[in-house]
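Narrative of accomplishments. A recurring question from our advisory board has been how the design workflow behaves on a single, concrete structure rather than in aggregate. To address it, we present the structure tokens for one chain from the evaluation set, followed by the sequence designed for it. No filtering or post-editing was applied between the two.
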């Protein structure tokens, strides 16, 4: 009996040491915002949270908030957000874009290692209501697979519609896939061109009006990286509590896309080799490769984006071809019927005439203003 108790204690100490949330305690507990409670979301059949949605389920109590960040990750700025959250010992949910996750997997793995929830924000941030139903489903499935490949485990079965534009058909599809729809209650305004002070002031004013809610930030914005420490300090000062949402179950990504994205990451040296041991880093069946991924550099990310363009995932901007004839030979070209093709060849004389015509006519202006 005594031996069993000793082994249990040793096992508990090992698991706590393996979990970064316990391995790195709060550096500043006196000013910590912390996490008031952890809510396990049962996504079976789908669920919708947030007032800016068609249907919403109750999640928060008075003076409770959920911190969410969209559109990332991006090297440098996402890490600053993670450091600010660690400074206040709190957790958040990151809704990542699939293409960004493949371009910056190391940044996303740092978010996962810090114990935050990572969810899906489509494959390339497309407005799903403007696409066909089949293409919209593809955006959801490819995004989930890309994010899962980037972090080395299935992403949380949470989803947020880009631009918060949803539809009943797509919400029904999420329900069939057992994925919860997370809308928002309060928009921080970090995309409205506000400065740091105005952004913090606007966010807190909207939060006071509602009393609770899901906050929307964007970790790709520079102003967010500068303002988030002030927002966290204001939340602590006014007595708000942070709720961390985690999934109760996991949803496996599409096997075809997951395998394709894993090969793509390995080809560009942005993911650790397969076959390495994994260890549990947080609650549930969440695993992360024990060794750090290969060093990421700009050249590898650039090569990956080039692959996206070649495969048709990112459409390059095409230059519009000019219809003007650049030489006298081309101006004398004919049509299929043999008739000469009319072309406008600009000469110095025409330029002079155009310049004269562009000058204002005093007679015309006097007629407009004085009626004569």
């Amino acid at each position: 009996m005594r031996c069993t108790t000793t082994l249990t204690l040793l096992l508990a100490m090992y698991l706590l040491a393996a979990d970064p949330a316990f391995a790195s305690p709060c550096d500043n507990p006196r000013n910590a915002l912390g996490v008031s409670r952890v809510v396990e979301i049962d996504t079976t059949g789908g669920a919708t949270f947030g007032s800016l949605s068609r249907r919403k389920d109750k999640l928060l109590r008075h003076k409770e908030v959920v911190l969410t960040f969209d559109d990332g990750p991006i090297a440098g700025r996402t890490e600053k957000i993670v450091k600010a959250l660690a400074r206040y010992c709190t957790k958040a949910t990151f809704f990542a874009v699939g293409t960004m996750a493949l371009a910056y997997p190391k940044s996303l793995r740092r978010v996962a290692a810090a114990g935050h929830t990572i969810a899906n924000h489509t494959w390339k941030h497309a407005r799903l209501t403007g696409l066909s139903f089949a293409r919209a489903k593809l955006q959801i499935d490819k995004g989930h697979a890309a994010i899962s490949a980037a972090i080395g485990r299935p992403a949380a079965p949470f989803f947020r519609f880009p631009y918060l534009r949803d539809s009943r058909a797509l919400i029904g599809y999420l329900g069939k896939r057992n994925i919860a729809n997370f809308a928002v209650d309060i928009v921080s305004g970090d995309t409205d061109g506000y400065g740091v002070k105005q952004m913090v002031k606007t966010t807190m004013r909207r939060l006071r009006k509602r009393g609770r809610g899901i906050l929307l930030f964007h970790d790709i914005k520079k102003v967010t990286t500068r303002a988030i420490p002030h927002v966290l300090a204001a939340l602590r000062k006014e007595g708000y509590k942070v709720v961390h949402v985690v999934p109760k179950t996991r949803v496996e990504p599409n096997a075809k896309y997951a395998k394709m994205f894993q090969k793509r990451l390995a080809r560009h040296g942005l993911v650790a080799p397969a076959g390495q041991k994994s260890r549990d880093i947080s609650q549930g069946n969440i695993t992360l490769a024990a060794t750090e991924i290969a060093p990421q550099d700009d050249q590898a990310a650039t090569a990956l984006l080039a692959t996206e363009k070649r495969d048709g995932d990112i459409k390059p901007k095409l230059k519009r071809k000019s219809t003007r004839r650049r030489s006298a030979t081309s101006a004398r070209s004919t049509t299929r019927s043999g008739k000469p093709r009319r072309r406008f060849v600009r000469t110095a004389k025409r330029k002079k005439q155009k310049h004269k015509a562009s000058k204002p006519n005093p007679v015309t202006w006097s007629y407009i203003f004085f009626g004569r």
